Amino acid sequence: MVTKGSCMCSQVGYEFTSEPATTALCHCTDCQKWTGGPYTANVVVPRKNFTVTKGTPKTYDAIGASGKVNKHFFCGNCGSSLYTELEIMPDVACVKSGCLDGGAKDHDIKVEFYTKDRLGYAKEIPGAEQLTHFG
User: Does the global pTM surpass 0.90?
Assistant: First the structure.
């Protein structure tokens, strides 16, 4: 199985060759800033199965609540948020599902992180594990 994604202007492309390890929403205030929305929607995949296939994304390092680096990858041209690599989770990439080719998929969300920061109108996903923070 190969899943592909790209930024809005198509200058950066990527693919992964495995099923997601999990799917997650993150409601933390950093993710709210990162997306300009109430949360990030993530397809979490093993880094060993994730490859940038076109272009070179820019990066921004933020320090998470853990004190460890959250490296954000984005297109330097159109600004699309592509994926994150969290020092606290060294074996996976958190792919932003809105950049999957063909549009965001209606994934069965397995976990919601930082529910303490969830906005009132963003309701709990039934059946998803609810965590007030990460880790």
Answer: yes
Q: Give me the mean pLDDT over the 27-32 stretch.
A: 94
CATH of the domain at 24: 2.170.150.70
- Which tokens is 132 given? 């007030």
Q: In this structure, what are the phi and psi dihedrals at residue 115, rounded to the nearest 5 degrees?
A: -65, -20
Number of domains composing the chain: 1
DSSP 55: S
Output the CA–CA distances (angstroms, integers) from residue 78 to 9, 99, 132, in the order listed: 6, 12, 32
Residue in the block written with tokens 């994934």: 107
Range of the domain at 120: 3-130
- Residue range 65-98, pLDDT digits in tens: 889 999 999 999 999 999 999 999 999 999 999 9
